[in-house]
Amino acid sequence: MPVRAAGDQRAYADGLGTQHHGDALHDSHNIAAGCRPARGGFLLPRLRPRECFQAAKNRVAAWSSTKSVATSAGTATTGPWLYASHSDQGLGGLSARFHDHLRARPGHPHRSRPVVLNTWEAVYFDHDLDRLTHLADLGAEVGVERFVLDDGWFRHRRDDRSGLGDWYVDETVWPSGLRPLIDHVRAPGMEFGLWVEPEMVNPDSDLARAHPEWILATGGRTPADRRSQQVLDLTHPEAYAYILERLDDLLTEYDIAYLKWDHNRELVDAGHSPSGEPAVHRQTLAVYALLDELRARHPGLEIESCSSGGGRVDLAILERTDRVWASDCNDALERQSINRWTGLLLPPELVGSHIGAARSHTTGRTHDLAFRAGTALFGHLGIEWDLTRASESERAELAHWVSLHKQLRSLLHTGRVVRVDHADPALWAHGVVSHDRTEAVFALTSVATPVAAHPGTLRLPGASTPTPPTACARCPRPTRSPAWNAEPPSCAPRTASPCPAASWNTSASRSPTSTPNNSSCSTSRVAEPPPRGSKAGKTGGPGRWAAGTVPLTPCYAASGRRPSSSVPTTRLYAGRPKAGPTSGTQSSRTSRAVSAVLGNVRPQNAEDHAEGQCLGAVRLLT
Prior knowledge:
With 622 residues, the protein is an alpha/beta fold. 23% of the residues lie in helices and 16% in strands. The longest helix is centred in the middle third of the chain and has 21 residues, at 392-412.
């Protein structure tokens, strides 16, 4: 099996060599990983280089032994590539190499990723032209750029138990076809997308009744149903031709820019009829051929690998698709973990990340809009929400989040992803730093009850060493308004001892706090966050989020100690600061999640405060 080494010359050409030590996975530790194009990947921590090398070979051999391909005498077969990389900068460095590799592909999407509105959690199977056009209008108002009609548009598809395989527009639901909806979507400039699941068939369908032999099966039996569906055997030339013809006709007749390509069940007893011989390998190649042919016939067509949410996220499918749907669970708290680990392999622009309704339809949890939007902000942003049921204020706040994403999109989808190891496992920090290290955006999220009442300061990696402003002294007090304010910051000498807690001016002008003898600091563009939305829960803290780009030559510090109740501080509600006294305990003591802006950046290789350098630091404000 051939192996390609992604990274520098320290990666072994025929395996993986590394060692990992310590608890900090994301930074400054040797680590290696491999990824099979056809199915998942593996991590090899805490092994000596040669142990890791042998472990990699053993895992590849074990995987290959379960995926046998029969060949006749005198013939050869080519197995899938294994991509491997090594880094002495922890998971962050390892991830960066895979991201760079994927972004360097000729077929990698390079235009701005359009903001998506997907109809599934808004209407499910209840397709109605008036309702959908109203939804499209509201989507356009909040900044949507691509409207995707999900499951339910084709014949006999009034629930998930029938119709798969009958890829004709349902005349009873769409008497004039899809054109009225598509024309309405296209009028304000949005693209139109369509959901399909071409590899599947319902037994209750015209296709299955006409061609039962086109179902993958072996042993003289039909595999157990999964979601009331079976797998269509595309190794039958006639079945392949039928699916190609139906999809090609739809793409030719209608102005469809995007296919959401689903795949909602496993391949079990996957034999080719009538002999029952194993067909998974040939089925996979047939799917690749189908995708390649459709893209060749329709240049510019984009395809999402949905696959029940994360069921087919690999390098081979990514050669033929433009993004993946990481999970059908759209709960923002779950998505924090899902996006975090999916992002080890995939850069953010390839991972669909949507803002759902307040109450998740998969978990039943409720989160406020700030947290849902802050979680989705970093990926390929979308909306999975019935906006006709959202209030006017919610839609206005959503529009601000979409606008913020568009402002940050060029940074989020080209920069280096950074993850920060925190001593408290309940606090996760991540961000994106531009390649010239002049701009960054970070998020700090509490995914559980923090161990400590106050998280203290947090060191953010990725910045270059600044030239310290001469006027700055040890432990300078913050002298500017938060990072989302457009006014340029200033740097001031130390005027008080000890360094007090952050005190940001929250007047209408939002001007920096006035201090004498200011010296200039380098700045970067900043983004206005959404206005204050509805308050968080009764505890006052969960579900908050704010973001803004910040200078990476910083000169502000916020105290790492807990401020006294008499010191004014800043409360964050969906990104808008509000002055108020601090409480004696941190407000994020619930199972819900809270994110807060990281207003300044401390350079990775900056010296300590005792050296008199003007440093940026961050506190989680109550």
